[in-house]
Structures are given as C-alpha cells and as structure tokens.
Amino acid sequence: MSEKKLMDFVAEARKNVKEIAPADLAEKMEAGEDWLVVDVREPYEFEKMHAPNSILVPRGLLEGAADPNTPHRIDALVNAREKPVAVMCATGGRAAMSVQRLQEMGFTNVVNIAGGIKGWEGEDLPVESGAYAGKLP
C-alpha cells in the first residue's frame, strides 16, 4: 500500500462532496434561506478574516462538536443535521474533508464553499475580523 499525502485526502474528499460558489451561497442567504456557515480554520485565521455570522469549529474539533453525545458538542452544529450547512476554510481543502466527515456523521445537506475564505473575499463578499465570541468545543 502506498503512503497517502494530504493532497490525496483532499482530492478524495473533493470527489465525494458538493461545492457551492461563494456568490451563490450569499445569494441564497440574502433570499432568506437558513444556512449555517461553519468555518473550520484555526482561531488565529478566523480572527484575521471571516464571513459574517459564521461559527468557528476548528477542523481538529469537528467530530466532537458535531456529535450530540459528547461534552464537546456545539448545539448550532448538532442541530443543523437537516438544514443546509456550508463549510469554509482558507481555500477549500480542509472544508472538503470536513464536509465528507459530516456526511458520514449523518448531515444530509452539507457543502464545501468553493475557494474558501479566499474565494469569498475574491468575490467581494462581506468579511469581518475579530476573535470568535462563541463557544468552542
């Protein structure tokens, strides 16, 4: 068996997940669709720039935050199993792996935000800065 590299995991995940363009997601949200935007970057990355109203769940804490049976659960995420969830990272790799994992955990409508926060900013969508004020797992 050959050794896998990070990009192998990302490529595999991208084959198994749906993506949404940042502008398409913003349009859906502006039209009133109730999306949960989950940022899976690290707190220092989130602090520099993030999408408004997104929640921070660092990639390494995702499974515990999404599992209703752990003390690390994040209710906003746990309760979003049946609603649209869009996952964001810097460029889309961590988010693709996160989407795949959330699908395995029973989330039925979860997508990767194409291009991550860089794609979001590149489409001139609003961004904010500052430390995350919500609960972390």
Structure description:
Helix content is 39%, strand content 12%. α1 (6-16) crosses α6. The longest helix is centred in the C-terminal third of the chain and has 12 residues, at 93-104. It has seven helices and five strands, in the order αβαβαβααβαβα. β2 (36-39), α3 and β3 form a beta-alpha-beta unit. With 137 residues, the protein is α/β, with parallel strands linked by helices. The protein starts with 5 loop residues before the first helix and ends in a 15-residue tail after the last helix. The chain is globular. Strands 1-5-4-2-3 form a five-stranded parallel sheet. 34% of the residues are buried.
Q: Main β-sheet: number of strands, strand sense, barrel status?
A: 5 strands, parallel
How many helices does DSSP assign? Answer: 7
The beta-strand count equals 5
What percent of residues are in strands?
5-15%
**Cα gyration radius (Å):** 14 Å
What are the segments in which pLDDT stays under 50 over at least 5 consecutive residues? none
| Chain-averaged pLDDT | 94
Determine the fraction of residues in helical runs and give it as a percent range. 25-40%
Structural class of the secondary elements?
Answer: alpha/beta
Helices and strands, in order, run as HEHEHEHHEHEH
Distance between the termini: 35 Å
Strand order of the largest sheet: 1-5-4-2-3
Shape: globular
